[in-house]
Amino acid sequence: MAKSSETSNSDSHQHDSNMNGLDLEKQEGEFLTTYDEICDTFDDMGLKENLLRGIYAYGIEKPSAIQQKGIVPFCKGLDVIQQAQSGTGKTATFCSGILQQLNEELTQCQALVLAPTRELAQQIEKVMRALGDHLNVKVHSCVGGTVVREDQRILSAGVHAVVGTPGCF
Fold this sequence. Notes:
This protein is mainly α and 169 residues long. The chain has one domain (5-11, 32-168): Rossmann fold. The chain is built from 6 helices and 3 strands, in the order ααααβαβαβ. It has a 3-stranded parallel beta sheet with strand order 1-3-2, with helices on both faces. Helix 4 crosses helix 5 (118-131). It is globular and about 45 Å long. Residues 1-8 have low confidence and may be disordered.
């Protein structure tokens, strides 16, 4: 999905103008939305065919509410802040957005994901690898308790995305 600078600028302008004068105090369970597009299916999101294959192979058939509202603006390069309970699809949302934007032909780090714990970083890496399985992307996690030289070797060989904990960077 190629995005023109005009479309991107238009989306950014819509986002910025929607942010002016917002009441940021919301009741629990309410969404603060500055981007209006909601996609009922993954097919409606304009995602790469091989990313769709990875999503469906992972067992996700229909996007959750957070995915319906978050994947497209993330793919368009907009800032996305979402908060939801466990198991609602947040990880798959931002992993899909990252994978959509990666240039698979360029084996250089194009995305960095920071997680507060080793376990979460490894979970994110696992989800990103699974969703990106048909894209031929290389993902690596840098976390404590691993051999630093091995991390250096893998990173030097080239990866598309790195997931890690702040202490390892």
